[in-house]
Structure formats: C-alpha cells, structure tokens
Amino acid sequence: MPRRPQRHMVGSGSDGTEDSDSSAEREQTNSSENTPDLKRAADHDESPPLTPTGNAPSSESELDISSPNASHDESTAKDQANRGDSDKDLSHRPKRRRCHETYNFNMKCPTPGCNSLGHLTGKHERHFAVSGCPLYHNLSADECKVKAVSREKQEEEVKEENNSRHATRHQTPTLKQSRYKEQVSEMRKGRNSGLQKEQKEKHMEHRQTHGNTREPLLENITSEYDLELFRKAQARASEDLEKLRIQGQITEGSNMIKTILFGRYELDTWYHSPYPEEYARLGRLYVCEFCLKYMKSQTILRRHMAKCVWKHPPGDEVYRKGGISVFEVDGKKNKIYCQNLCLLAKLFLDHKTLYYDVEPFLFYVMTEADNTGCHLVGYFSKEKNSFLNYNVSCILTMPQYMRQGFGKMLIDFSYLLSKVEEKVGSPERPLSDLGLISYRSYWKEVLLRYMCTFQGKEISIKEISQETAVNPVDIVSTLQSLQMLKYWKGKHLVLKRQDLIDEWKAKEIKRGHSNKTIDPSSLKWTPPKGT
Fold first, then answer.
1. Where is this region: Disordered (predicted)?
2. Active site residues
3. Where are the alpha helices (DSSP H) in 195-272?
4. 490: left (phi > 0), else alpha (psi -120 to 50), else beta?
C-alpha cells in the first residue's frame, strides 16, 4: 500500500556545518547589496555555474496551485550509478523524510497475486499501478466495467437535465432534484451508527489476511451514497494518472529529476522542470535550501554548505511574527536566486511557464526560522506593474509544508499588500482547479467573517470589496457558490444565511487561536514606486 507522508522532520548530516548564530540574530533590514560578494564566497566549490543554461520563455506566468497528480518511484539503479561515490558511505547519514507516496513504473502491477488485467476505471484492458488495480480495491475487472457503464449513464442523465433547464437565473430545484435530495438524506441517516460485531470481525479478518496489499473494506463505514462518491473520485484520479502515463509525461528512465535533497527533506518531484540536461538526467538533484543553488552530488552539497553564508533569502524582510518571515525579492536585483526559485517551483507546478524572465516580477518568499536559518515555506510572485491589478501571478507551498495553513497565509498576505496599496486585487487567470478551490475557501472565509460583524440592513458588494481588497467579480462568484445571491423582482439580493455563519463560528471556536494567521501590524512595507 502506498506510504502516507509523515509530518515530522528528520535532520540531515550536512546541517552541522551551518552557522546557527547568524540566523538567530538576523536583522530586519535591507539586504539587496549581498549578491556579488556572497556568490563569489560561496562558489569556490564544485557547484554548478550561477547562471542556469537555456532560453527564457517569453510567455507570462500563470497561477498554479497544484497538488500531486502522481508521485514518482524511488531512484532506479541507473540513478544510483550516476550518483557515483557520493552515496557509497551512507552510514553517517540519518534517515531522510520522504514526502508523498511512490508511483510504480514497472510494467507489471505491484499488487501480490494480480495479473495486471483490467482497470479501476473500466476503460482500459491493463494496468501497471496500484491506483488502477481492481484487485487492490477489492473488485474484479468485470465489476469495474459495470460500474463504468453506470457512471457514464448517470453523467448523461445529469447533462440532459441541465440542458432541459431553460433559465439559470432562478435557482429553484426541479421536482426530480428535490426527490433525489430526500433520498440522499434518507440514505445518510444511519451513516454514523458504527459497525456491527460481525462486520468488525470481517474487517479485521480482511486486514490480517491481506495487510497493506489490499484496500481496507469500506462497506458499512458510511452511507452508500458517500461511498459511491468516493469511488467516483478514485476512478477519476486513476484515469488522470493513466492519461499521464499514456502521454509519456511519466515514463521509466525519462530525462526527469525524480527526487531532490532539500535541507532536511528528500522530496519526490511531481513534474518536469527545465534544469540543464547535465543535472536533469541524474534523477536526483541536491539543492541548497538557502541560496537554492543546485548540485550533482551529496559531496558537492556538503562542501557548499560548509562555505555558504546565506541563511535567509535575499531582499528585504517585510514581515516577521514569531518564526514566520516574508522577504520581498526583486527579480531584477536578485535574478539568479529568482530563476532558481522558479526552476524549483516547476518541479511541483504543472503549467508554470515563467523560468528565466524574472525581472518584471517581485517575489514574496515566506520562511520559517529556527537556529539553523530561515527555511523556505512557499512563495508567490506578482508583476511590478499589472495592467489588470493582479496581486498574484504564481503561488506555491513547498510539499513538506502543505496542509498546515501556510497556503492560506500566502493568499492572505497578498491581499494585505493590496490593502496597503489601496487597490482591489485578484489572482492571475486562468486558475487551476485546485487553485480555484484554495482561493474559493479563502474568499468564503473572508465573506462569512464580514457577514458575521455586519449590522446594517443593506449590503453593498462594492463596500465589501473596498474593505477586503477582493475583486467584486470574485465576491459575486463566491456568493453564488454559497447560494447567498438571489435575483428577485428585477433586483439582486444578498442573503445573510445564518446557518453558514453559525457553522463558520463553530469551526473558528474549534480551531482556537492559531499562529497560522497574518498580523497586519507586523508588516513593515511601503508600495514600490511606480506601482
């Protein structure tokens, strides 16, 4: 069964050479004068040249907030041979943390007893990964085909019903939709009743027999409706992975970096990044977590870390609260660092197009500090002069910091800058599916917080926009998704849904006081001239 990522951190042996005092006593001052001398001081080892090779794309950056469509397999024997003598003596190295599950590229399903026939989606004759294995999911190939036909039939019915609705202005559900809602409510009534004794014994017997080689039995854990939704999501994800395999984006032995050693973490990459070919073909890349220089071996990285004087990103520290800091890095003043940051980000973003043409952009890099330095958490970039008032061009949270609230902090910080600039901001379009989910979650929280404190009788979308710095178009789309915007007698009405507000209040109380929030009083920043 694929491994789940753990949230603890394991130290690496190379950290012992770092100067911890320089991080603890860092000053919140401008540091843009650092680059030439620091690069010369840190570059007497065998690290790669400062300027990456390759042509700079001319297209603009796109917003990508992605989660992995697939994780990659562990380094192959060919990768191990390329690493040379750097990995011969590993006895002194502590075990590194690996992020995300692995993906098997062998042309045979890794599930014991499986003959690789059939596919979870019911659309393919063979499979080569656990994600598409019917046996792992306690199904047969024929059952998967039957379920696929049923899903297609349901999708056709939904399409026909949507096409038969002549107007979308009135949100009243149809009679069929009302009946279906009642059926779903009825099916969900007993979903929290728990398992019976016989069912528990059956589940335990299945686990003892198959261990981690089979999916746990899911029947009777929740309602049939919710279980079917989960099965549909599994099939969709499996189909996406199969498309990637067929298109050759994930192939065995491809010229692609599969893992990177980044500080205390060993990270599986998700996508191709245009590093120079001499580095990309290695399969494993070694990256300094402070200056982001990339190297070919553990030996070179260890020598580099002994001499690297960087303990935080270049540029100006514009925000600090507790251990969280944000640095403003000018793509023109710190071109090499920003290029390396973009190359690193592309390993985890699918459609990112900005790599080398970084001069028109400002990069806001979030870090978490400890006694060894400021560790990269994530970043977002924005154009210095955006004609459409985009406040984010590209945004990324590093895999080891995902699902911890840092992504929402980055989004909140981008809107805080828009408030200081006295502008209304919005992320650059098009938004990816996961990007829309992340932003919609943030917009929902902002609107419910505003509604919670609003005491007037008439709500103006323009006033909400001016107070929150959220674009009116984004406010309207969020209100529609929350079913809080209605059209009645020629007027648009905003409904104050108390049930949603009460639900949000309960979540806030349960969440308690969190340090994963942006404090406006900790911002020390003035808008750049000319913006």
1. 1-97, 155-212
2. 428
3. 197-210, 224-247
4. left
Q: pLDDT tens, 199-235?
A: 888 888 888 888 888 888 888 778 888 888 888 898 8
Contact 331, 358 (CB under 8 A): yes
Token pair listed for 403: 């699902």
List, in order, residues 6 or more apart from 387 with CB less than 8 Å away: none
**C-alpha to C-alpha distance for 51 and 343, rounded to whole angstroms:** 12
| 464: helix, strand or coil | helix
Query: Contact 129/252 with Cβ under 8 angstroms?
Result: no
User: Which domains, ranges and CATH numbers included, belong to the chain?
Assistant: 116-155+200-251 (no CATH), 253-310 (3.30.60.60), 315-522 (3.40.630.30)
Token couple for 318 = 């514009």
How many Cα atoms within 13 Å fall on the side-chain side of residue 35? 16
Burial of residue 211, with CB atoms counted within 10 A of its CB: 0-12 exposed, 13-18 middle, 19 or more buried: exposed
Omega before residue 430 within 30° of 0, cis: yes
CB 4 within 8 A of CB 101: yes
0.85 exceeded by the pTM?
Answer: no
- Do 364 and 328 form a contact (C-beta atoms < 8 A)? yes
Which one, of 494, 499, 503, 498, lies nearest residue 464 by Cα?
Answer: 494
253 and 76 Cβ atoms separated by less than 8 Å: yes
pLDDT in tens, 291-346: 999 999 999 999 999 999 999 999 999 999 999 999 999 999 999 999 999 999 99
Task: Using DSSP, state whether 370 is helix, strand or coil.
Answer: strand
Residues near 56 by beta carbon (within 8 Å), at least 6 away in sequence = 355, 356, 357
- CB atoms under 10 Å from CB of 474, counted, come to 21
What is the rounded CA–CA span in Å between residue 212 and residue 188?
Answer: 29
The SS3 of residue 514 is coil
Contact status, residue 449 vs residue 439, Cβ threshold 8 Å: no
DSSP 373-397: EEEEEEEEEEESS-TT-EEESEEEE
Residue 510: count other Cβ atoms within 10 Å of its Cβ.
Answer: 7
SS3 260: strand
The three-state secondary structure class of 135 is coil
Measured CA to CA, the distance from residue 261 to residue 510 in angstroms comes to 37
